[in-house]
Write a structure and sequence with these properties.
heterodimer, A: 279 residues, mainly alpha, MetI-like fold, 11 helices, globular, B: 273 residues, alpha/beta, six-stranded mixed sheet, 8 helices, binds adenosine-5'-diphosphate, binds magnesium ion
Chain lengths: 279, 273
Amino acid sequence: MIRNEPAVAVVPQEPPPERVRRQVPGAVLSGGVLLLVLAAWQAVVRVFDVPEVLVPAPTEVLASLVAGLADGSLVEHSWVTLQEILVGFGIAVLAALLCAFLVTQSRVLDKALFPLIVMTQTIPKVAMAPLLVVWFGTELTSKVLTTALIAFFPLLINAILGLRSADPDQIDMLRSFGATRMDVLRRLQIPSALPHIFAGLDVAVVLSVTGAIVAEFVGATAGLGYVIQATNFTLDVSRTFAVLVILSAIGLALHAIVVVCNRKIVFWSAEHRTPTEQA
Amino acid sequence: MDEAPRAGTTGTAVAPADLAVELRHVHKRYTPRRSRRAPSQVVDALHDVSLSVARGEFVSIVGPSGCGKSTLLKVLSGLTPRTAGEVDFGGGTRLGTVFQQPLLLPWRTVTQNLLISHDINRRLAEHEARERAGAMLTMLGLGEFADRYPGELSGGMQQRVGIGRALMHDPEILLMDEPFGALDAMTRDQMGMDLLKIWERDRKTVLFVTHSIPESVLLSDRVVVMTPRPGRIADIIDVDLPRPRGLENINTPEFGAIVRRIRVLLNSENSAH
Ligand SMILES: Nc1ncnc2c1ncn2[C@@H]1O[C@H](COP(=O)(O)OP(=O)(O)O)[C@@H](O)[C@H]1O
Ligand SMILES: [Mg+2]
């Protein structure tokens, strides 16, 4: 199938009249739903006069957010948490790719490590956060390590699966031209792994946000997780919600970066490969 | 030297100078790694296979599924080691393989896919290789698809690229494992004719596996008929139809006679097991 061919050509008869209707873009739809929910929330809080220390109205959250950003306190804490997320995520990516490479290239390492990796999957990694704080203190290090630990495993598993996902017939094809193991790795296994690696990155990037916040809960003097705990203590619930807004913004932004990179780098899988039976 | 000397059915009659490849008493046994305890898992895929192919000859291999056709090609190309016997390449060992699936790399453009053997071997200068790829695409009728990705091509076009990729390697022997098996009948006939044209132009040695008897007769100088369990050569049939051949040959009585002969051979061998 040539890409620009109209999809109608495949349908033999029955012109589908309903399908022709213009579709509302998904972003507009979900944006609308979000606005509706916020409006309903605002109305409920106002109508039933819910106290601010229980559930603040969206407008109060917004006011707190703007105030916090204006006086720089939320900006500072966000920066602390963002650093933890990015450094921890970066370490997780490098470590996971390196381990995946070793496990897939060496039969001995594979046999020795893969069962252990699968077993450690079952340990809740957040449970390690208090230990890491004891070992590494309440500064950046313990947060970065908790974040890295949580993001590491989904990345590792996906990278291993990805590096193993190369079609054996494709490997034969390359070998028939005299490809060495290095050629096969570089020209086939790594590109074949990329879609899986990006799936892992997407999971891991969201988990890194969780990791940083959990680590800050356990023991911190700065960061958005610290702010959540502090404002909980002082019953400044509007500020707690404001932090949640910032956290979802960070999560969304990181997710969006992964999605865009995925689309740019793994362009071929977005293209929906044509089945080969078709002549 | 238009007529390559024909090998006899014993496969030993080719003069050494004209030999493309000779197999002598080749055996191949698959022994799955995991099941030493279950000897029934052992498969004798090739049993005492002897065959010699002259340079420039077009030889087809037919036989029921599982009789070892793919194994025979893999033993030749070294993708799988043989258990016993000898393989002797007279004309050179550069082989090009065409598989049943096009096996194009979806992240490479059509041109880049053709250049994969160049990227691995670097036998030519970059510009020479690119020129060759361009000429190849023109010959395959895919000139305007040079910079497209495989996902944008039909199955037939993709398989053309697969054939071109093997030819880019400038092989002494072209190994083709049911290359048109995944295509519809009309595309298949067309591709067969195109392949004949290419072959008549550069007279590469071709070993062509197919499950279509008419296709094997139409294309080949000789047809190797194989039988399964254990995979061995039942007979080798000479196809002495004049060349150049075309699809109209299929309706001639001579053609029908050879097809029938092979079919009878396959049926008798099948019912004997
Ligand atoms: N890698 C393998 N391991 C074990 N058995 C195999 C392997 N490849 C092929 N076989 C077996 O060898 C026999 C011949 O296979 P193959 O050469 O693929 O046959 P064909 O191409 O004629 O259909 C079959 O019985 C098949 O199951
Ligand atoms: Mg086969």
